[in-house]
Specification:
Elements: H1 4-13, E1 20-27, E2 34-42, E3 45-53, H2 60-76, E4 94-96, E5 105-111, H3 128-144, H4 159-175, H5 181-188, H6 190-204, H7 207-210, E6 214-217, E7 226-229, E8 232-236, E9 243-246, H8 247-259, H9 272-287, H10 297-324, H11 329-347, H12 349-364
Antiparallel strand pairs: 1-2, 2-3, 3-5, 4-5, 6-9, 7-8
Helix pairs in contact: 3-9, 4-6, 4-10, 5-11, 6-10, 8-9, 8-10, 9-12, 10-11, 10-12
């Protein structure tokens, strides 16, 4: 007898002309959406696809925006991304009516990309070549979307506008304690993170920051959203966080994901060698095409604050998830310690000077 999940997936797949469901496997790596690897049999040929059930809070205009940028990248053959399939009715996503448990859900079907899911966002340690390839690919992503005016939009505000909300959420966390080790850590380091939020917010509200270029950014560019064959990148996935925002914020967030250590005794340290490799590859890629310039001196000068903004942006997710869901306090404590460790590293003048010196060398090359 088919399981409830297989019945649900078969109902979704009946809206496509791609074959009959013969196997499904839940993708356990996702933390926001629910996704499945599905095998379909059509005319004796078996093929694998990726099926996503979007989070309940997604808005249709957000999916329209995501799928428009995917279609644009696929047409340009700019990055190794999975195309999204259209239903028999010609739509890129499907909404099933509400079941007994509540609201209906949105679904989309994508190509299955080859390669290894080598990392997650937690504890990645890419090789220098992988890091360079990641920097190069982010530059190609930004260049491909430099002029796209996509329909729809992401509901989330731009990073500068988010700081008031994040600051309030951080304050509410202390007031809404669950009484766990996570809450104890938040209380102990409350002022440190509050100071980081205030200082970063001030830096991003300066006139120079408001003049920085905006493009469509990935906004979740980390090693767990890349697939690898050897040290080459064979796939870039998960565009449902994409939005129009500061290009340099996407770079700063990526540096936080790729280059901040998770190892004991090194937790929170920005690996400057890795950061330089990522940035050099990003800059070099954009020097070979005039459609989008490399990071400017103003963007590089603000990059330390934008890496801080990346840390705070992910703090926002950590806090919202912890207080909004029934999650493992010990697991989220690991995340919170990592945020605090980076904030501590970043606040030390000697570390800021070393980072600024590395960026100054990049500016001169």
């Amino acid at each position: 007898m088919p399981s409830a999940i297989d019945t649900e997936l078969a109902q979704v797949l009946s809206h496509y002309d791609l074959g009959r469901l013969v196997r499904s496997v839940r993708d356990r790596r996702g933390t926001v959406n629910t996704s499945f690897f599905v095998d379909l049999l059509d005319s004796g040929r078996r093929r694998k696809y990726f099926l996503r059930r979007y989070k309940r809070t997604i808005r249709p205009e957000e999916i329209v925006f995501e799928h428009a940028l995917i279609d644009h990248i696929v047409r340009q053959d700019a990055c190794p991304v999975a195309r999204v399939y259209r239903t028999r009715e010609g739509e890129t996503f499907l909404r099933l009516p509400a079941q007994a448990e509540g609201r209906g859900a949105f679904y989309a079907l994508f190509d299955y990309l080859p390669g290894e899911d080598r990392y997650t966002w937690v504890g990645p340690r890419c090789t220098l070549r992988e890091t360079r390839n990641a920097g190069r690919l982010l530059a190609r992503f930004h260049r491909a979307l430099r002029t796209l005016k996509a329909p729809g939009k992401r509901a989330e505000p731009k990073i500068v506008e988010m700081f008031e909300v994040i600051d309030r959420l951080w304050a509410d966390g202390r007031a809404n304690s669950k009484g766990t080790v996570f809450d104890a850590c938040l209380a102990e380091h409350y002022d440190r993170i509050r100071d980081s939020i205030a200082g970063t917010r001030a830096a991003l509200q300066a006139p120079a920051a408001r003049r920085l270029p905006e493009v469509i950014i990935h906004c979740d560019y980390h090693p767990g959203n890349l697939k690898f064959e050897g040290e080459e990148i064979s796939g870039l996935v998960d565009f449902d966080w994409a939005k129009v925002d500061l290009r340099a914020f996407d770079v700063g967030l990526a540096l936080w994901y790729f280059c901040v250590s998770w190892e004991p005794r090194l937790d929170g340290r920005l690996r400057l060698t890795d950061a330089r490799a990522f940035l050099e590859a990003y800059q070099r890629e954009l020097r070979h095409g005039g459609e989008l310039a490399p990071l400017s001196s103003d963007e590089l000068e603000l990059l330390p604050a934008l890496i801080d903004a990346g840390n705070i942006y992910v703090i926002n997710w950590t806090i919202r998830d912890y207080y909004g869901k029934d999650v493992d306090a010990q697991e989220y404590l690991t995340y919170l310690y990592h945020h605090v460790a980076y904030a501590r590293w970043s606040a030390r003048p000697a570390n800021r000077e070393r980072l600024a010196a590395m960026l100054a060398r990049l500016t001169r090359t």
